[in-house]
Amino acid sequence: MRIVPSGTLLIILGLLFLSCEISAQTGKEQKVIKNGSLVSLEYTLADDKGKVIESNKGKDPLRYTHGQGELIPGLEKELEGMKAGAQKNIRVKPEDAYGTVDPQAFREIPKANIPPDALKVGTRLLATTPQGQSIPVLVHEIKDKTVILDFNHPLAGKTLSFDVTVLDVKAPEAK
Q1: Suppose 42 and one of 94, 114, 132, 165 were both cysteines; which one would form an S-S bond, judging by CB atoms 3.0 to 4.6 Å apart?
Q2: CA 119 to CA 163: how far, in whole Å?
Q3: 29: which residues sit within 8 A by CB, 6+ positions away?
């Protein structure tokens, strides 16, 4: 049996405690958003004037795989490196979100092709592509015999503000 002075014992206990703390912190670092991470988020999306566009607070979280292009690029870039439990306000410019308004995305079609009750500027409609895909369009202008439709994404040209809380981060799944 070896007896150590009490001061040495305190140093040994302190080193053991410190190594346990370092080990616990290392485990937390694995909960950082990186490529392939499975992420759960709570968010509120607002426009540049502060008007709330949508929110999932009090609902199911948004779940996505980081780095797979499932979110707009500007949001995904700002989430990189965040930890579970972190909160952040993220502003995303149009070019990193849904793009700027494209003047080529306006189409003039015959008025007869639009339902009469939808002939109001600002009405949102669903158009069907030749491939059968539905896309949202906006009645932009009404002329005598034609209507100008805006095929831009509804959030094109807008700076977006996301208030996010990272609820959970899981390591990438092994393949």
Answers
A1: 165
A2: 36
A3: none
What single-letter amino acid sits at 107? R
4 or 76, greater pLDDT: 76
Residue 23 tokens, joined: 């080990």
pLDDT, tens only, 67-120 = 999 999 999 999 999 999 999 999 999 999 999 999 999 999 999 999 999 999
Pairing of strands 62-65, 106-110: unpaired
The model carries a pTM of 0.73
Q: Which fold has domain 103-150?
A: Thrombin, subunit H (2.40.10)
Calculate the alpha carbon distances from 102 to 32, 40, 47, 106 in Å.
Answer: 36, 33, 19, 8
Cβ(115)–Cβ(169) below 8 Å: no
- Secondary structure (3-state) at 42: strand
- The better pLDDT of the pair 52, 28 is held by 52
CATH topology of domain 38-99+156-170: Chitinase A; domain 3 (3.10.50)
